[in-house]
Automatic annotation (TrEMBL):
<keyword id="KW-0479">Metal-binding</keyword>
<dbReference type="Pfam" id="PF02225">
    <property type="entry name" value="PA"/>
</dbReference>
<keyword id="KW-0732">Signal</keyword>
<dbReference type="Pfam" id="PF02128">
    <property type="entry name" value="Peptidase_M36"/>
</dbReference>
<dbReference type="InterPro" id="IPR050371">
    <property type="entry name" value="Fungal_virulence_M36"/>
</dbReference>
<keyword id="KW-0964">Secreted</keyword>
<comment type="similarity">
    <text>Belongs to the peptidase M36 family.</text>
</comment>
<dbReference type="InterPro" id="IPR046450">
    <property type="entry name" value="PA_dom_sf"/>
</dbReference>
<dbReference type="Pfam" id="PF18962">
    <property type="entry name" value="Por_Secre_tail"/>
</dbReference>
<dbReference type="Pfam" id="PF07504">
    <property type="entry name" value="FTP"/>
</dbReference>
<dbReference type="InterPro" id="IPR026444">
    <property type="entry name" value="Secre_tail"/>
</dbReference>
<dbReference type="InterPro" id="IPR003137">
    <property type="entry name" value="PA_domain"/>
</dbReference>
<feature type="signal peptide">
    <location>
        <begin position="1"/>
        <end position="23"/>
    </location>
</feature>
<keyword id="KW-0865">Zymogen</keyword>
<keyword id="KW-0645">Protease</keyword>
<dbReference type="InterPro" id="IPR011096">
    <property type="entry name" value="FTP_domain"/>
</dbReference>
<feature type="domain" description="FTP">
    <location>
        <begin position="58"/>
        <end position="104"/>
    </location>
</feature>
């Protein structure tokens, strides 16, 4: 990525805001200091805290919203040194502690290992650079020091100046003194936040601000004949500050080109969230930029994938008309203007929509100019389109408030091999060959590369695999190198050929079967030449021709299609990436973006949900299961997408419950996050069923609008490093704050159905495998359930009137009820989501299911009717 195009005008004071233990940000000196301290001391036994654990607490962040509710984010310290991520949330309303989410650690005094660092900040930065192979720091210079926080020059190892702070890192029951170092690697592959033991420079733990949305490896959706134009719903034509801008894009709610047509939208900027339009930065009427740059996002092309190079930005001229042709049946550079425009549009839409649901300047949103509102500025999103540093992915990096986040959108490989990209023009192997393009390096162009073929020869046992030093470098100059797949990384081999002067590489598979997409490994980011893999049979024929033929053999490499798929048109993935910024800035306060790296965190789930919410049509129903990223991975809209299950409240489609987070076949963090998104999606439809759907995502009053408010509120209220139960409790508290608790029963019923019931236990949120699910509702006398509807709860049935037995079962499973539940659907679902038994019946008295033919294992019993939606785990012995 390129970072010279923005003057990163963070003042040093902004970089260090919230990190200093001073009279201004100690809890005692804060506005609600006495109130909060009294509350903590009164409730310390509940959290196993001692008075010593509550000394010298600092306020990392605090702000008050338009409703007069204050959010205070507290950080524990010991002798002036912060305990990393020991950040608790306090919500104050009407001068009372409304909600407290604890993340303080206990018995600090007896757990710290030392108060003196053995290594200096400079020594630890050098050690960190060596550990992560970032090259040797050059000219490392201290720029500023405030308390335990330092700012150093980038020293040639980081795109941004290096921050380092003395902290305590919790390691089991010990608090180890550590240096917390933040470095943004020059190749944009990592944005490290690393804790190094300050006594021995050993790496204690590592976070990466640069989140990558790796996919796990079909809802025929008829595009509505009359498309909903979201802008007609959201834009006030009477706004005095509209700039007349227009954009030809895949307009929301279209998730992608497969979900809806391109539309020319006019004046889409919301007059509240973006009062001077999307191309402003100075807060005066009139756009400063006629390109895809403005207050909320700076979008440009980055096909070279190189740092510190300027990329193309389409120019809408003085009329701000961004209407460019689009033909995707060509390499990406042929439609770059349309691509960057869509990326610019979508980032701005995410900004404006979620601004109205609570992600505003105070909460740490992304704006160059806050227009006089609280919060730090100069942190608009830097968004790179068609980025050439990777493939089949997307990333978002979220630093603390006041620093620019980065979004990187890659191309995605089309299904199947390229259409005969290789032609060998003479020799015994003359002919046309199919191949698969690498996932790194320069893409093949429609402009042919025609030159001589040459074997790359090295000293390894297989002299053609380029895993050791190439011995015929001079001969490879200007030629297409032919290399056999071996035991070393593809990036190493192709880079070696490139360094020898080769203009392209043909990789020969060393096993039978189809060629694969070659991964970059550690060196691939430095590769700029194109490369393809061919089958073993084809490649060995070419090698034999070169070995046995004395004549010069020429070949042509060219891209005949199918062409790569541009992720910049997948609005769902863009929304997902932007969602990482929302969840990271709101959890633990805007100056802390390290709170969602624990084992049980739900960041990927929130991001999936953000994408789903902005791409709902008013014709959608709960029955239409949703996949994520189907366009990018060349699937129909009914496809599975990049998650282990499609999102649906129907357990026959998505049976995942809380216990699935313990299943290591579910990946971390993406698979774990998908379980959380499953629950949120169920809750979304429960809200829509109750309140209806409103296509106006900004000022609407439907169930979808209400849950958008709820989720942002919950993010602000949960503690740092939350688990699923923390997230559930924050949503319950958010409902009480927003409505007085009108939807407590709805929330409990949805969460209980997915195993996050009253007795669910998350254990340690930093441990992956200690979650305990539970399907029960709170006790019927719980005052939070006073607003429940007539929907009969699982808890009511389970006591006397509703029984399922025996469990575990062998041959029969009995359902018994003393009260008529009407006509219900009874299903048993296996762990792969398959319905192995289904029947409809009027449920009164006893129903017996034959389980004798089922395989041993775990099943979900689902009973669904007008007055019940019951789920219970069943074990078959």
């Amino acid at each position: 990525m390129k970072k010279n195009y923005i003057v990163f005008a963070w003042l040093v004071a902004l970089l260090f805001s919230g990190n200093l233990v001073t009279a201004q940000n100690t809890l005692e000196a804060s506005q609600f200091g006495t109130l909060i301290l009294d509350y903590l001391k009164e409730n310390k036994d509940q959290y196993n805290l001692q008075n010593e654990d509550l000394e010298n607490i600092i306020v990392r962040d605090s702000y008050t919203d338009d409703a007069g509710v204050s959010y205070i984010y507290l950080n524990q310290t010991y002798q002036g040194i912060e305990i990393f991520n020991a950040i608790s949330t306090v919500v104050v309303k009407d001068n009372k502690v409304f909600y407290y989410a604890n993340r303080f650690t206990d018995d600090i005094v007896n757990r710290v290992n030392t108060t003196n660092a053995t290594f200096s900040p400079e020594e630890s930065i050098i050690a960190m650079a060596n550990h992560f192979q970032l090259s040797n720091p050059v000219g490392l210079t201290q720029l500023e020091k405030r308390g335990n926080s330092y700012l150093f020059s980038n020293a040639g190892i980081s795109q941004r100046d290096i921050t380092i702070e003395l902290v305590y890192s919790q390691q089991d029951r010990e608090l180890k003194l550590a240096w917390d170092i933040v470095v943004y690697a020059n190749d944009s592959s990592h944005w490290y936040s690393v804790r190094l033991d300050a006594t021995n420079n050993e790496v204690l733990d590592v976070n990466d601000f640069l989140l990558t949305c790796t996919f796990e490896k079909d809802h025929t959706h008829n595009t509505p004949s009359e498309e909903l134009n979201f802008y007609n719903e959201m834009v006030s034509p009477s706004s005095v500050l509209v700039d007349g801008a227009s954009y030809n894009v895949f307009a929301l709610p279209a998730e992608s080109p497969n979900h809806g047509p391109r539309q020319l939208v006019v004046n889409p900027a919301d007059p509240v969230a973006s009062p001077f339009g999307w191309h402003d930065e100075d807060g005066l009427v009139g756009a400063e930029h006629t390109t895809t740059r403005g207050n909320n996002v700076f979008a440009q092309e980055d096909r070279d994938g190189q740092v510190f190079t300027n990329g193309f930005m389409p120019d809408g001229t003085s009329t701000l008309t961004f209407d460019f042709p689009l033909d995707m049946n060509q390499p990406a550079e042929g439609y770059e203007a349309a691509s960057v425009t869509n990326l610019f549009y979508m980032n701005n839409m995410m900004h404006d929509i979620w601004y109205h649901h609570g992600f505003d300047e105070r909460a740490g949103n992304f704006q160059s100019n806050n227009y006089g509102n609280p919060g730090l500025q100069r942190d608009e999103v830097v968004a790179d389109a068609q980025d050439g540093s990777g493939i089949n992915n997307a990333t978002f990096g979220t630093p603390p408030d006041g620093q620019n986040p980065t979004m990187t959108m890659f191309m995605w490989a089309p299904v199947g091999p390229l259409d005969d990209p290789l032609e060998v023009q003479n020799g015994i192997a003359a002919g046309n060959y199919s191949g698969v393009e690498a996932g790194f390096g320069g893409p093949l162009s429609t402009t042919p590369i025609t030159t001589q073929l040459a074997l790359a020869i090295d000293l390894s046992p297989d002299v053609l695999d380029a895993c050791n030093a190439i011995t015929n470098s001079s001969f490879l100059n200007g030629k297409i190198a032919v290399i056999r797949r071996g035991d070393c990384e593809f990036g190493v081999k192709v880079l070696a050929a490139q360094n020898a002067g080769a203009v392209a590489v043909i990789m020969v598979n060393n096993v039978a079967g189809d060629p694969i997409v070659m991964g970059p490994g550690a060196q691939g980011a430095s590769v700029t030449i194109p490369s393809i893999m061919v089958t073993q049979a084809d490649g060995e024929a070419i090698i034999s021709s070169l070995e046995n033929n004395s004549q010069t053999i020429n070949a042509t490499l060219v891209n005949n299609g199918p062409f790569q798929i541009d992720g910049d048109f997948d609005n769902g993935i863009i929304a997902h990436e932007y969602g990482h910024g929302i969840s990271n800035r709101t959890t633990g306060g805007p100056s802390t973006t390290s709170c969602l790296f624990n084992a049980e965190q739900m960041g990927e789930g929130w991001s999936d949900w953000f994408g789903l919410m902005v791409s709902m049509y008013d014709t959608d129903t709960a029955a239409e299961a949703r996949g994520i990223g189907t366009f990018a991975v060349s699937q129909p809209t009914t496809g599975l997408g990049i998650r282990p299950r499609r999102y649906s409240p129907d357990f026959t489609i998505n049976e995942l419950t809380y216990a699935a987070t313990n299943n290591t076949s579910i990946s971390q963090p993406h698979g774990i996050g998908s379980v959380w998104a499953t629950v949120l999606w169920d809750l979304t439809w429960a809200y829509i069923d109750k309140y209806g759907f409103d296509s106006d995502l900004i000022d609407g009053d439907g169930g979808n609008n209400k849950i958008m408010d709820l989720v942002i509120q919950g993010l602000k209220m949960q503690p740092c490093s939350p688990g699923f139960v923390d997230g559930r409790d924050a949503l319950l508290a958010a409902d009480t704050l927003l409505t007085g608790g009108l939807d407590q029963c709805t929330i409990w019923e949805v969460f209980a159905a997915r195993g996050l019931g009253f007795n669910a236990a998350q254990g340690d949120p930093d441990i992956r495998l200690d979650q305990v699910e539970d399907f029960s509702m709170p006790p019927s006398d719980d005052p939070s359930l006073d607003n429940c509807s007539d929907l009969l709860s699982i808890n009511e049935f389970s006591k006397d009137r509703f029984k399922v037995y025996p469990n575990p079962t062998q041959t029969e499973l009995t359902i018994n009820t003393t009260e008529s539940l009407g006509n219900v659907s009874i299903s048993l679902i296996d762990v792969n989501g398959r319905v192995v038994l289904n029947l409809e019946k009027d449920l009164l008295g006893t129903v017996t299911l034959d389980t004798s033919n089922l395989k041993t294992g775990l099943y979900i019993l689902n009973i669904k009717g007008d007055s019940i939606n019951f789920n219970e785990k069943i074990i078959k012995n």
